[in-house]
Amino acid sequence: MNMPFYVAPEQLMKDRADFAQKGIARGRSLVAVEYDAGVLLCAENPSRNLRKVSEIYDRMAFAGVGRYNEYDQLRIAGIRHADMKGFTYSRDDVDAQALANQYAQMLGQIFTHETKPLEVEILVVAVGFDTDGDRMFHIRYDGSVTDENGFAALGGSAEAIRDRLETTHTADADMAASLNVAVKALSGDDRVLTPNEIEVAVLERLDGGRCFRRFENGEIADLLA
Amino acid sequence: MTLPTFNPSDDPGPSFSGLLDRLGHNRMFENAENENSLEITHGTTVVAAKFADGVIIAGDRRATSGNLISHRNMQKVFEADKWSGVAIAGAAGPAIEMVKLFQLQLQHYEKVEGHALSLEGKANQLSQMLRNHLPAAMAGMVVVPLFAGFDRRRGFGRLFAYDVTGGRYEEEDFVASGSGSLFARTVIKMGYKATNDHDTAVDLMIKALFTAADDDSATGGPDSMRGIYPIVASITSDGYTELDESDIANRFERVLAEFAEGGSQS
């Protein structure tokens, strides 16, 4: 009878984490920044069809980096969760924290129990009726959740982007200024990102209804000009 | 409430009602029987007509239970999504539930797929919902909606009428549904022109609803004492817009004065 090799749990977890991190580092990054009238999401993404940023509910958005098919599954599960909850209770009862916890549970479960962890990092963003109500939950491949404040960066070069945002981001800038800050943070100093290479959406601080709005190439160019 | 995930073979895709089925949510009124002929709250007259820039959709505010008025400010005209509206006549409870599910269905599809359904796709969705509702309709809970929207691909407004079996009929000019529909339809017929501008089309709907209220006891007229007026919305290339209540009140006043001048209508 074959005896399976003993692998220490520390090693097992480390191998899985390394695997997931490598997968995420291969993809491009994204940022979310608060501005004077909501939250702006900006992703480096040359595709107009394979979106990284999308709408979940009236005041909630989703952003993901890493493997497209994996975070897209999570996105759809999130929409289903939110719509189910709004249908069963009320539209007011759909909240970002519950969804973030659900994502964390699912990612944690897959990380420890499945053959392969998901190679994704996701962000659940909610815009409040005032700045105190804004939420950003950053959920990693292993299910760990961080509550981000003011801005968030996801993806391979997130550390460097976060450092840049630390000095340049202000929550009371207008939309165009914030977009410029976000794009500079994504690109760094030694390259320039054109409107065709980025995907931009905002959650506007409206009094009601759907706050998510996606920008087309022309609008992005106007804002960046 | 957990995250709903499915095997690829069992995935409901962008359908919200498919999701409800998979999650085992009991759909209302599925095995309805109304042997005791319970008094059911009914909503009444709704109308829709095309005009030069799109479609106007409107409805009165009264709900009745038998000979009693049960609600004076019921909403029967709803925004289905940015480019379409739905108006309902018939059993109020199931009708409102149907609208809620319809709105969700359209929005859910749009979010999952990343783009909205075509106008015809939306009209067909409503048709399917009515077909599912047929057992309840047989038990007396009849729901008859109107669906109107702006077809962005073709660049004009379109109108759809339904029957209880889910039959879908595209109308070329105008349509009315509910107890007062006979009167309303006749009024629209007299003043209808495909080239009517927005104001003329809105006034025509106001006249139609007023006449329906005048001759049908289940249709509510303008209620200036409580400040309750029919809901009128237009759907054009700019999307769905509900008219201001004060605007509608003024129009009613004008129309009433016009009628009074021409001698009382019996």
Order of helices and strands of chain B: HEEEEEEEHHHEEEEHHEEH
Biggest beta-sheet profile of chain B: 8 strands, antiparallel
Q: Tell me the number of structural domains of chain B.
A: 1
Q: Would you state the CATH class of chain A?
A: Alpha Beta
The fraction of residues assigned to DSSP E strands of chain B is 25-35%
Please write the CATH class name of chain B.
Answer: Alpha Beta
Chain-averaged pLDDT of chain A: 94
Radius of gyration of chain B: 19 Å
Can you tell me the overall shape of chain B? globular
Number of strands of chain A: 10
What level of helicity do the residues of chain A show? Answer: 25-40%
Write structural notes for this entry.
The complex is a heterodimer of chains A (225) and B (266). Chain A is of the alpha+beta class. Chain A is built from six helices and ten strands; from the N terminus they run αββββααββββααββα. Chain A starts with 8 loop residues before the first helix and ends with a helix. With 266 residues, chain B is an alpha+beta fold. Chain B has one domain: Aminohydrolase, N-terminal nucleophile (Ntn) domain (Glutamine Phosphoribosylpyrophosphate, subunit 1, domain 1), CATH 3.60.20. Chain B has helices spanning 16-22, 92-113, 119-132, 134-138, 181-191, 198-215, 245-261, and strands at residues 42-43, 46-51, 54-59, 63-65, 68-71, 77-81, 84-91, 143-151, 156-162, 168-171, 174-177, 231-236, 239-242. In chain B, the strands form two sheets. In chain B, strands 1, 4, 5, 6, 7, 8, 9 and 10 form an eight-stranded antiparallel beta sheet that branches. The longest helix of chain B has 22 residues, at 92-113. Chain B is globular. The mean pLDDT of chain B is 91. At the A-B interface, strand 3, helix 2 and helix 3 of A face helix 1 and helix 2 of B.
